[in-house]
Amino acid sequence: MAEQLPRRPRRGPVRREPPDAEGAMEVAARFLGTRPRTRWELTRRLRRAGAAPEVIEATLERLAELGYVDDVAFARWWLEQRDRHAPRGRRMVEAELRQHGVPREVVETLREAEAELPPETEEARARIALERHLRGRPMPEDRPALQRLGTFLVRRGFDPQTVRRTLRRQAAEGEDLADESS
Question: Per the structure, how many domains does the chain have?
Fold first, then answer.
């Protein structure tokens, strides 16, 4: 039987003094070091660190003045990241933004700004998501496989109409390519 190593004594929770204004700014700076954050996320982090409400508000105001806390900029960044790395439908992106604490007004503003873009934007995202999912494989022709692809896109936040249009176009292009190679 293997020899057991001696256990290290458990430490209890570390008791620290609540951060003052300078300490709160350090906590926030470290938290912002990985990616942009929303005002709501920073508030939660500073509360968890034990900062007083006045200190939290002053820190957030200072960070906003410096341009480090901007929910609109965060939402645009999030949309850009989604489009680049993991395309999602508008509904899912909006849900993710709300989970990060982006105010409803900001989400509405972004929705209106997106309405000015070409109407194919949502379908283009669905096509990219589908192509990445297929990874170069041909579009399946059997109904169950097409239904699974449709379900995949719906889970990614695309509405059923966009999913149907995307699948039809992708299938039609696949047939066109097959006809050209013959």
Answer: 3
